[in-house]
Amino acid sequence: METVLSGIRSTGNLHLGNYFGALRNFTRMQHENKCFFFIADYHSLTTHPDPKILHGNVKGVLTEYLAAGIDPEISTIYIQSDVTEVCELYLLLNMHAYLGELSKTVSFKEKARKHQDNVNAGLLTYPTLMAADILLHNADKVPVGKDQEQHLEMTRKFARRFNNLYGVEYFKEPVAYNFGQELIKIPGLDGSGKMGKSEGNCIYLDEDPKSIEKKVKRALTDEGPKAPNSEKPEYIENLFTILKVVSTEDVVQHFEDKWNTCEIRYGDLKKQLAEDIIKVTTPIRERIIDIKNDDAYLHKVATEGAEKARESARKTINEVREIMGIHKF
Ligand code: TYM
Fold first, then answer.
1. Are 168 and 323 in contact (CB under 8 A)?
2. How confident is the model at residue 321 (pLDDT cuts 50, 70, 90)?
3. Was 156 annotated as part of a binding site?
4. With 90 as the cut, is the pLDDT of residue 221 above it?
5. What is the mean pLDDT of residues 260-286?
6. Which residue among 21, 32, 104, 327 sits deepest, i.e. has the most Cβ atoms within 10 Å of its Cβ?
7. How remote is the CA of residue 22 from the centroid of ligand 1, in Å?
8. What is the pLDDT confidence band of residue 156, given thresholds at 50, 70 and 90?
9. Complex ipTM value
10. Is the CB of 202 under 6 A from ligand 1?
11. What is the rounded distance in angstroms from the CA atom of residue 30 to the CA atom of residue 24?
12. CATH number attached to the domain at 1-172+293-322
């Protein structure tokens, strides 16, 4: 059985990008694999160091994991900071992570540009902490969205480097996974770029249907294609990209045909898109309402998950210490 691991930062409510890039695959992979799904609260401190909201955000993501269908009876769900073994592995991996490669990471460069008043070492070493998360359980597959591809490449590099340096075949080289398909990037509704919490262009899993309709209605469009079979501008392509993940092939084909024959009516496209997004989010939103105030259940899931995750983490740390020559007296 293969090991699957992934995490989402506790920086706010989850959106369609998180769902289609990551969370949906978590639920699809849990039956055939040994799964670890965690809430990356340490990672959120790199950009969201606010003690007043951190715990609420962690609780929110935990609730959304369960509402989306991760089953704590078969998957290990835990909070990153409950398994502090990850800090030790992070430190050890940092001894073999170089400033040059860390500072060239796309996500670091982007975040350093955005948060110029706080370009902290946590941001720089974000990929080493992520590698520590993954290698801590020696995962084979990591379901993530397109934006995490480079982090996975770095994880493989750190694993390979460790094995070569110490002359062992210890860490596996994990892959970013989407069932053999290209990793997913869900665009925002504002015409360009990816859907992201900090971009303010999201549709959230707990969002009310009326609000979803409103957001979809406001999405950027134009007066329509100028010639048959023409290329779509990015903001229209984006609507089709979302349609492809929420609707059936027939529906997508119908609107493709309408586009190609210059008969497309954006009002119809948006109505269908909103309807199909709401079909995806409604059952999740309803379960969020059921679970979010059940503190006893959330506590049970988090504590049992932490216990299981710590057991696996402890084993890795003991072995890594041995390999690196950190022996006990
Ligand atoms: P975060 O919280 O930024 O994103 C969580 C997951 O959601 C995916 N995602 C998207 N996928 C498609 N389209 C989008 N618009 C979109 N926006 C977000 C991300 O690719 C990600 O899979 N660094 C991780 C958290 C993490 C982690 C790990 C993941 C920490 N340690 C170890 C896997 C393994 C992240 O980006 O979180």
1. yes
2. very high
3. no
4. yes
5. 98
6. 21
7. 7
8. very high
9. 0.99
10. no
11. 10
12. 3.40.50.620
- Structural domain spans, the chain: 1-172+293-322, 207-287
pLDDT at 154 over 90: yes
For residue 49, give the DSSP letter: -
Judge whether residue 64 has pLDDT over 90: yes
pLDDT band at 125 (very low <50, low <70, confident <90, very high): very high
The pLDDT of residue 190: 85
Residue 8 beta carbon below 6 angstroms from any ligand 1 atom? yes
Given a contact cutoff of 8 angstroms between Cβ atoms, the answer to whether 238 and 187 are in contact is yes
Alpha carbon distance 129, 199 (integer Å)? 24
> What SS3 class is residue 319?
helix
Distance 327 CA to ligand 1 centre (A): 36
Taking each helix axis from N to C terminus, what angle separates 266-291 and 234-246, rounded to the nearest 10 degrees? 50
Residue 79 pairs in a beta bridge with 39
Phi, psi torsion values for 6, nearest 5 degrees: -160, 165
CATH number of the domain at 207-287, out of 1.10.10.10, 3.30.470.20, 1.10.240.10, 3.90.1150.10?
1.10.240.10
Cα separation of 234 and 64, whole Å? Answer: 30
Q: Assign 89 to helix, strand or coil.
A: helix
Model confidence band, residue 115 (pLDDT cutoffs 50, 70, 90): confident
List all residues 6 or more positions away from 324 whose beta carbon is below 8 Å from its beta carbon: 92, 166
Give the amino acid at 80. Q
